[in-house]
C-alpha cells in the first residue's frame, strides 16, 4: 500500500487546509446532527470537541449513558489521529474506555491526542473534562487506514 500523503504538509494547501477539511467532515456526518457539538483542530495530532450533554442522552439513573462517553472519546481520538493521515479515512479498530465520573448535564470537552503510529495503524488517546474542569472519562483507540480516500468524501472536499 502506498503511503503518499502521510504528512499534513502533503495535503493541498498544507496542514491548515487538511485540518479545516477534517472539521467540515465532522460537521457533515449525519450522526453529528443529533448532538450539539463543535470541533476544533489546532495542530497535528490534536483535536478538541465541545459537546453539550442534556437529559436526552441519560440512562434510567439520570446521567449520561456510556454510549455518549464512547462517542465523545472516539471522535476526539479519531480526529487527532486523522490529522496525520491526509490521504485516507481512518477506521476505529479498537477502543478502551475508562469512566471516572458520571456526567449529568452541561458542556463536556473531549480532548484528543495522537500517541503513536503514522503508516497503517495509528494510536490516539482522549479524555473528557466536565464543566467543573474534572476528568470524567478517558480512552485509547487504535485506528487503521481504510481504502476510502478522504478526497472522495463530500464533507472533506466541500468548501
TrEMBL record:
Protein name stated in the entry: PaaI family thioesterase
GO MF, any single term: acyl-CoA hydrolase activity
Gene3D superfamilies: Hotdog Thioesterase
Residue span, Thioesterase domain: 62-135
Entry keyword set: Hydrolase
Pfam families recorded: 4HBT
Keyword Membrane listed: no
Hydrolase found in the keyword field: yes
